[in-house]
Amino acid sequence: MARIYTLVNQKGGVGKTTTAINMGSYLGYFGQRVLLVDLDPQANATSCLGVDKRAVKSGIYEVLIGAVPFGSQVLHNPRFKLSLLPSSPALAGAEIELVEMDKRESRLSEALEPARERYDYILIDCPPSLSLLTVNGLVAAADGVIIPVQCEYLALEGLGMLTQTLHRVQSTVSPGLKVRGVVLTMYDGRTNLAMDVVQEVRHFFPEEVFQTIIPRSVRLAEAPSYGQPISIYAPDSNAAKAYMNLVSEMLRQDGITTPILE
Fold this sequence. Notes:
The protein is of the alpha/beta class.
């Protein structure tokens, strides 16, 4: 049965999609069967993995509105060691269409049920907003949410709002919702501010913050333009090593022994 984690932060530019892609690729690197669900109408995860979002004929939009069952839309990339349920600009229309549908908050959870036997991990990349699509992502997060937080001051301001949203979803439609982990991203050790943010976030989430911190990296910023995860684009970079360590840390917490890889 797959573990389902939803990556969420209503603030844009915090490394959420980057984290979803690279956690997914390194989970595959460690032998896990991985599905990445692009739940963002901007389709950044889809584009960053080299798929033309304008050419997507059937993806998460069609699955959400019930036009097609889950399955044939999934794109598998053996080189990246992960599968993708792509997004397209059509997903923007789902915000309006979902409002009138039955069980509108749990459409994604129900649609992904057949996938739970096929994968070890399902990662859901939400849009940078607190929308109905994001609520669907939160309800589908059977094993918790992962929150990427940029190591800059403004990133702290949104944590309170995000926590309130999580509590609302928990109290209304998803009682089991929990924070699985917090990933500190874009860390620049040369600044006192970055270190202060790390301390503040660890105070805010005393038990949930991963020990591994993702550094700022030119290579990491370049990789999406080549349609590749960092594990392929620059596997020897500090950012690649950080994401490998992050995934290894998560697997250990999940009770999965990671192989020793050369």
